[in-house]
Amino acid sequence: xxxxxxxxxxxxxxxxxxxxxxxxxxxxxxxxxxxxxxxxxxxxxxxxxxxxxxxxxxxxxxxxxxxxxxxxxxxxxxxxxxxxxxxxxxxxxxxxxxxxxxxxxxxxxxxxxxxxxxxxxxxxxxx
Length: 127
Prior knowledge:
It is a single chain. By secondary structure, the chain is mostly beta strands. It is built from no helices and 11 strands. Strands 2, 4, 5, 6, 9, 10 and 11 form a 7-stranded mixed beta sheet that branches. A 4-stranded antiparallel beta sheet has the order 1-3-8-7, with no helix packed on it. It starts with a strand and ends with a strand. 34% of the residues are buried.
């Protein structure tokens, strides 16, 4: 059974940092690309970043200079390091997996393309 579990959210002051973790089970990171997303109340789910099986990464413009995605294959975990957080980053953050996506050189797949989702972790940035 596939399971994705996000951890690392919390309350942080503006300008602070957090590292989110996405621990996966039931799938392998050499066969699945992983994406990070967020959703604020009354807003659509937004793609933030993704990492493919060939190691390529992609970011949305809103976070590309502040967030970094990485993987630890041995731990079956994908991380999202978030620096210089702003109040507008407040949202619930999700990770998701998509099968057999070798590269993201042309950008991340759309939200509906992802096959498996975690339950999310809340990030709140105070002013």
